[in-house]
Amino acid sequence: MVMALAWVLTSVGVLVATVLVIWRWTRRGLNLPPGPRRWPVVGNLLQLSSLPHKDLAAYSAAYGPLVYLRLGGVDAITTDDPEVIREILLRQDDAFASRPRTLAAVHLAYGCGDVALAPLGPKWKRMRRICMEHLLTTRRLDAFAGHRAAEARHLVAEVRRRAAAGEAVNLREVLAAFSMNNVTRMLLGKQLFGGESVGAEEEALEFMEITHEMFRLLGMIYLGDYLPAWRWVDPFGCERKMREVERRIDDFHSRIIDQHKKKAREMSLQGAAPSCGEMDFVDVLLSLPGEDGKDHLDDVEIKALIQDMIAAATDTSSVTNEWAMAEVIRNPRVLRKVQEELDAVVGRGRPVAETDLAGLSYLRCVVRETFRMHPAGPFLIPHESTRPTKLLNYDVPAGTRVFINTYALGRNPRLWEDVDEFLPERHLPTAADGGRVEISHGPDFKILPFSAGKRKCPGAPLGVVFVLMALATLFQCFDWFPPEGLLPEDIDTTEVYGMTMPKAKPLLAVARARVFFDVNQ
Ligand code: HEM
User: Fold this and answer.
1) Which residues of 333-365 are buried (b: 16+ CB within 10 A; e: fewer)?
2) CB 380 less than 6 A from any atom of ligand 1
3) Greater confidence, 311 or 464?
4) Most distant CA pair in the chain: distance in Å?
């Protein structure tokens, strides 16, 4: 027994020593960027807390614009610097536009067979082209404008109902339902929460719960991705959890595809065909030819795309909306200015419409300031380098994981004054900007809500509409106050880390009607 144990310990020791020697040898002569001291085997992994974006922000402050980390067996860099980010996303996007195959991505994105988590390659290119040319086209998105207006009315009705009952409104709940309904109407042809969906509330809640769990797992820095030995042990059952969520989500997607196929069969038996305006995204995907001469896309490809759209479009917009509401209610001065603008541009006699949104410059500054302080995700989705390259004259090996810290970018004191103050005015356009407030990144790369380059968000125009429409509607129709007993500045702004970065506690606020038009007019 003692002999066997000694043998195992010696073998492990020899293995670790061999790995270290090989690793050091392959890095001979490399001029890696500066970074914190690393431990053998684990590297910097144990220096990361439950808020890694803050840890990496502190490293950027200490070591400069480009920081090297070793995460177990994986090279990683992080940056909060606009010039380095521009170099990574634009000038060298051929080298940095891939994605790591993390275990969460393999389990939760159909083996990385989607768009958002797929490594760079012909498969990603084809799936992204399907999104751009068949789903997120201006024509198709315009066809859903009526549904979006209906969801804005539903949002007002829901807040009125809760306010009339004397409750403080749980803004997380109503904003999550707004985003989810908008996405599922477009994607699946049905509203999940409220209205038409009476009776399906349980299914909706279950689906929201799995989606949140999926986000948590996707955002996690899972040790098994960096230390293969950890995977064998999996002491917290993370991979088991990933498999369970994978199965539950797949069941949901299978049901959706079956329902759509059944509907298509029934229509074809009646000799009918849906018009372009009536087709939801699943109908569109079912109508497209597959690869290599196949008549249709594979079910798994359709599922991966549905999954991406739901994951990419719902939490991003509802988390942003909750932060914007929290910051505006914390700053009554800003609320007054937003409402003065709405009164001047839209008035109080009719609901705000999508065509008004371009003219709401101050509200657009509010959204930009929200993205500066609370980007939807603390990092862009991690990128990965496909070949050895150089940044700021440092060597970056192939396979390096890239953490672009958008949280630290927005709070970088070298770029912004009063970083912790919510000051939308700082984004007011000068005459040189042409007077329009752009919400996506500008030429200075100081805010990056939708990224840039090959991997930039293909849903940005729609995301902007979801955010502006919800906020304009809520600020036009209601005055907002903190719950009884709290002052505006008491509203908590602690965040939790994940693929998105929500407020730690759901936002509760008191709503008082300020317009009285019939929302259904
Ligand atoms: C406020 C709303 C939104 C925000 C803040 C947002 C932000 C982002 C960000 C930061 C990325 C990562 C880019 C990178 O890694 O470099 C991304 C990727 C992506 N987004 Fe969005 N997004 C939003 C809404 C949407 C919507 C509405 C859709 C589609 C319906 C969408 C679809 C995608 C997809 C498919 C990707 C992956 C692109 C790729 O890897 O090629 N997003 N988004």
Assistant:
1) ebbebbbebbeebbeeeebbeeebbeebbbbbb
2) yes
3) 464
4) 86
Q: How do residues 355-368 score in pLDDT, each as one tens digit?
A: 999 999 999 999 99
Q: Is 56 part of any domain? A: yes
Instruction: Classify 230 in phi/psi space as left (phi over 0), alpha (psi -120 to 50) or beta.
Output: alpha
Residue 199: which CATH number? 1.10.630.10
Q: Which residue has the tokens 């005015």?
A: 425
- Let me know if residue 12 belongs to a domain: no
Task: Find out whether 477 is annotated in a ligand binding site.
Answer: no
Residue 313 alpha carbon to ligand 1 centre in Å? 7
Atom of ligand 1 nearest to the CA of 453: 16
Percent of the chain with pLDDT over 90: 72
Ligand 1 contact via 381 beta carbon (within 6 Å): yes
Alpha-helical (H) ranges within 27-97 are 52-63, 82-86, 93-96
> Measuring CA to CA, how many Å separate 115 from each of 91, 157, 297?
22, 36, 15
Task: Judge whether 506 lies within some domain.
Answer: yes
Q: Pick from 455, 457, 500 the residue to mutate for probing ligand 1's pocket: most ligand atoms within 8 Å of its CB.
A: 457
In 3D space, the residue among 437, 476, 473, 468 whose CA is nearest the CA of residue 342 turns out to be 476
Give distance in angstroms: CA of 294 to centre of ligand 1: 29
Domain that holds residue 73: 31-513
Mean pLDDT, rounded, for 326-354:
97
Q: At 6, is the pLDDT very low, low, confident or very high (cuts 50, 70, 90)?
A: low
Going from the Cα of 115 to the center of ligand 1, the distance in angstroms, rounded, reads 10
215: closest CA among 101, 302, 307?
307
Q: Is the CB of 314 under 6 A from ligand 1?
A: no
Overall number of domains in the chain: 1
191: CA distance to ligand 1 center in Å? 22
Does residue 518 carry a pLDDT above 90?
Answer: no
Place of tokens 């431990």: 39
In a domain, 21, yes or no: no
Check if 378 has its Cβ closer than 6 Å to any atom of ligand 1: no
Q: Name the one residue in this structure whose structure tokens are 């019939």.
A: 518
